[in-house]
């Protein structure tokens, strides 16, 4: 997780097989900057192709915790409710 803190641009996060896990957006970037870099149509297309692979966040978090990835427990504390 420390590596992400050094990133200055939007960064795709991928697993060992190259599957997209998520996108990291630096805090200093404005919402407008992030929207300009994000292709919603492409994201929707990818979702339609891969929605059978979707798992709830709690399952992903549990798996990462079980695997012993550092920082997972800490990130849970920082989670905010989104409106």
Which helices and strands occur, and which strands form pairs?
Layout: H1 2-5, E1 11-14, E2 20-24, H2 31-37, H3 40-50, H4 57-67, H5 72-77
Antiparallel strand pairs: 1-2
- Poorly predicted spans: none
The radius of gyration computed from the alpha-carbon positions, rounded to a whole number of angstroms, is: 14 Å
- Shape descriptor: globular
Distance between the termini: 25 Å
How much strand? Answer: 5-15%
- Indicate the mean pLDDT: 77
Total helices: the number is 5
Quickly give the structural class.
mainly alpha
Would you write up a description of this structure?
Strand 1 and strand 2 (20-24) form a beta hairpin. The mean pLDDT is 77. The protein has a two-stranded antiparallel sheet. The protein is mostly helical. The relative contact order is 0.11. Helix content is 47%, strand content 11%. It is globular and about 35 Å long.
Key features of this structure:
single chain; 83 residues; mainly alpha; two-stranded antiparallel sheet; 5 helices; 2 strands
Task: Give a brief outline of the structure.
The chain has 83 residues and is mainly α.
């Amino acid at each position: 997780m420390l590596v992400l803190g050094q990133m200055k641009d939007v960064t795709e996060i991928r697993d060992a097989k190259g599957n997209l896990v998520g996108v990291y957006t630096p805090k200093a970037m404005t919402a407008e900057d992030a929207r300009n870099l994000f292709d919603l149509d492409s994201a929707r297309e990818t979702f339609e192709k891969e929605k059978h692979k979707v798992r709830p966040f709690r399952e992903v978090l549990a798996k990462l915790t079980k695997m012993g990835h550092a920082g997972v427990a800490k990130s849970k504390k920082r989670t905010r409710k989104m409106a």
